[in-house]
Amino acid sequence: MNELKHVLRLTLIEKKDVATAIFFGFIAGAASVALMGSSGYLISKAALTSHMTTLVVMAACLKLFGFISALSRYGERLYSHRATFTMLSHLRVSFFDRLAPLAPGIFGKYRSGDLLSRIVGDVESLQNFLLRVFYPPVVLGIVFLSTIFFSSFFSMGIAAVMFIGMLLTVIVVPALFSIRKRRTDGKTRAKRGSLAIEATEFLYGFRDLKIHQQLNAKEQQLANDAAQYNESQRKEGLEENLAQSINSLVALLVSFFVLGVGAYFVAAGELNGLYLAMLVMISIAAFENVAPMAAFPAYFEESRKAAVRLEEIVAEPAAPRGTEQLPEGPLDIKLTRASFSYPGEKNAAVDDVSLHLKPGTKTAIVGPSGSGKSTLMQLLLNVFPLDHGQLSIGGIPAEKLQQESIWQKMNVVLQENHFFYGTVRSNLLIADPEASDEKMELALAKVQLELFPLSMAVEEKGQNLSGGQKQRLAIARALLKGKSLWLLDEPVSSVDSLTGQAIYEELFQQGKGDMFVTISHDLAGLEKMDQIIVMENGRIVESGSYQELMERKSYFHQLKQIENSVFA
User: Fold this and answer.
1) Which of 281, 310, 398, 487 has CB 3.0 to 4.6 Å from 40, enough for a Cys bridge?
2) Which residue ranges run through the membrane (predicted)?
3) 50 pLDDT more than 70
4) How many Cβ atoms are within 10 Å of 436's Cβ, its own excluded?
5) What is the pLDDT of residue 116?
């Protein structure tokens, strides 16, 4: 039950609704038992008396109990479901509050399909926690104890039999099936996650699978995963049916015992025969309410596993978040002996790197693929926490700053930029919600997208745009933001050289006095940079101006010579 403590706390936030639902559930259960007990008493009384007044009163009580039972059942459903929906709302908010600080590092540990399965499927599974796990034992326990207390006034022996039956049907049998289910669980949730992973990859990679003629193999794998998931669900259904059958059998046997013990007490003169039918009917009615407990093991295990799978994602504590804001005015960025390794990787992606980026300067970071350039950019953005070393912005250590305040001061264009389903206008307004149409059209013109109307549709992830168009639209978005720190990771790698140079000139012209940090594989045009940082294997191997690096005839000079020989 420890795994469900957090869910229980979120459920009990709505104490009033939960308590009201339990109250109406008890009234409905008690009225149902009273209805059956009154029926038994009326049958016996009708056989022994001819007084119509008594029979009319008892018949009126039957109608009253039936009305109370129906009305209370409605109130129970209303408040229990309202509490459930509120709990789900609290759960989603709580989960995303804990998940958000872990992004984007969370994507390195979990595949997107698995995350989707947990965020959607497991959260939805917990809707059964109140209705099927927490609520039924509480209500049944109260109804049974009240029924046993009432029965004890007529026969302690029958009350004892009903108490033993309550222990068996409400506690023992569900507990045994819970243990059995935990031991023999078919890992349905894991198979559902596997199916979600494969389905997501199938949809994302459909074109590549088609090109490489692997579509049939992937479809077969997906079909196998679906078949395994269906088989696992079938076994769970059979297990639930077995639990229901066993519980119903125990309830039936207890009612027979009540009848047998009651008949013995009547024969021994210890029980008035008038009440025998009433006690038997009370027993039948009380044990009819144990049907939800047959499903308890399945729902309990489902809720427990769902809570565990959700907790696995957010269990790792997020890095402490600062509270300070960046000061106004020109800002510098300083990285001191910084090192960072991706989880599970032995080699450092960035190893003992120190650099100082001054306000108003233009810096290019170059090096071969895999040298750590893009990781260094992520560290400058304070996306990943450093393993060692120090990052400071404006003289303030990054761990003391609000992450949002850092990004607020930056114009960022990464290798992969996300575009939302909508229009060009809606995607540009992300950077500046108050931007006018004229301002947005001017930004598009500066990146040579003046032919794009603002009303042009943008599909999910910008699928209807080419690679170069996506990059230029991302730069236009950064232009609209208009901050003084520019971090550009291969911003024009998919654009032709002439257009790329023109865009750079436009950026430098608009951003006079701004700080530019650019990652590039293209070594052309670096003469305009104030500083060039050359990286290899996660380290800075040399730095300086273009002229200084060429005069040294070291690593950068060799890269330039290779580029010239290839494109000569």
Assistant:
1) 281
2) 21-43, 55-72, 129-150, 156-179, 249-268, 274-300
3) no
4) 9
5) 73
Position 27 pLDDT exceeds 90: yes
Q: Is 405 exposed, middle or buried (0-12, 13-18, 19+ CB in 10 A)?
A: middle
Distance of CA 118 to CAs 11, 88, 123, 203, Å?
19, 14, 7, 19
State CA 47 to chain mean position distance.
Answer: 63
In a domain, residue 325? The reply is no
Distance (Å, whole) CA 166 – CA 188: 31
Q: Residue 145: pLDDT above 80?
A: yes
Has residue 443 been placed in a domain? yes
Is the domain of 310 the same as that of 351?
no
The Cα 113–Cα 194 span in angstroms is 8
Pair 202, 288 in one domain = yes
Reading the block at residue 454, the tokens are 């603002």
C-alpha 500 chain-centroid distance: 40
**If you write DSSP's letter for every residue of 148-193 in order, what string do you get?**
HHHHHTT-HHHHHHHHHHHIIIIIIHHHHHHHHHHHH---HHHHHH
Q: Do 72 and 28 contact (CB within 8 A), yes or no?
A: yes
Which residue range forms the structural domain that includes residue 210?
2-314
Q: What is the pTM of this model?
A: 0.67
Q: In this structure, are 213 and 344 located in the same domain?
A: no
Place of tokens 């970071």: 365
Tens of pLDDT, residues 300-340? 877 887 888 788 777 765 555 677 888 877 888 999 999 99
Domain end, chosen from 287, 314, 341, is at 314
Number of compact structural domains in the chain: 2
Q: What is the CATH number of the domain that holds 518?
A: 3.40.50.300
Residue 516 identity (one-letter amino acid): F
- Residues 50 and 267: their CA atoms lie apart, in Å, by 25
pLDDT band of 389, cuts 50, 70, 90: very high
More confident residue, 277 or 295: 277
**Whether residue 477 sits in one domain with residue 369:** yes
Which residues make beta-bridge pairs with 522? none
Percent of the chain with pLDDT over 70: 92
Average pLDDT for the chain? 84
Place of tokens 């997020």: 318
Q: How far is CA 523 from CA 48, 74, 375, 506, 509, in A?
A: 108, 74, 19, 19, 20
For 545, counting Cβ atoms within 10 Å of its Cβ (0-12 exposed, 13-18 middle, 19+ buried), the class is middle
422: region left, alpha or beta (phi > 0 left; psi from -120 to 50 alpha): left
Q: State how far the Cα of 10 lies from the Cα of 33, in Å rounded to an integer.
A: 32
pLDDT at 299 over 70: yes
Cα–Cα dist 349/539, whole Å: 9
Q: Kindly tell me if the per-residue pLDDT of 297 is higher than 80.
A: no
- For residue 223, what are the CA distances in angstroms to 215, 230, 236? 12, 10, 20
Q: In angstroms, rounded to a whole number, what is the distance separating the alpha carbons of residues 385 and 382? A: 7
- The SS3 assignment for 390 reads strand
pLDDT the model gives residue 447:
92
